[in-house]
Design goal:
Radius of gyration: 14 Å
Order of helices and strands: EEEEEEEEEEE
Largest sheet: 4 strands, antiparallel
Oligomer: single chain
Number of strands: 11
Distance between the termini: 27 Å
Strand order of the largest sheet: 4-5-6-7
Number of helices: 0
Strand content: 35-45%
């Protein structure tokens, strides 16, 4: 079980049987929304500002990669998710866009337009 703090930028891994803390992590930012890809041992978090940050679970606390988005007009939490067996990172924005990144390289593959303005705080992805 992973528990994420919004303002302190920390998340912890808890033992699912007894609730004991297994490991503590410190992100380099506020955590807007996280996603875990257990198979790849990775977590991606929205920093509630201008990027999504990828972390390798059970390793050091430095981000593996940063997926840069358009600077926000207002700092709000946005949802982020893995797609295509963890090969893609998809996240919302506060400017009406949905970003699609290649996880391995950090390359922006597509910017999908939900609207010309406004928040895209909630997204849902499927595997097909």
């Amino acid at each position: 079980v992973y528990a994420f703090g919004l303002y302190n930028g920390n998340f912890i891994k808890l033992n699912g049987n007894d609730g004991m803390v297994v490991k503590e992590y410190t992100c380099k930012s506020v955590i807007g929304h996280p996603a875990i890809n257990q198979k790849r041992g990775m977590s991606v978090v929205d920093n509630a500002a201008d990027s999504f940050m990828l972390y390798q679970l059970d390793s050091n606390e430095e981000p593996v990669r940063t997926f840069v988005t358009t600077p926000p007009s207002v700092s709000v939490p946005k949802q982020v998710a893995f797609r295509a067996e963890g090969r893609l990172v998809i996240g919302g924005s506060n400017n009406g866009s949905v970003y699609v990144f290649e996880r391995k390289t950090g390359k922006l593959l597509n910017t999908l337009c939900h609207s010309n303005e406004g928040l895209v705080q909630t997204i849902a992805v499927g595997e097909h």
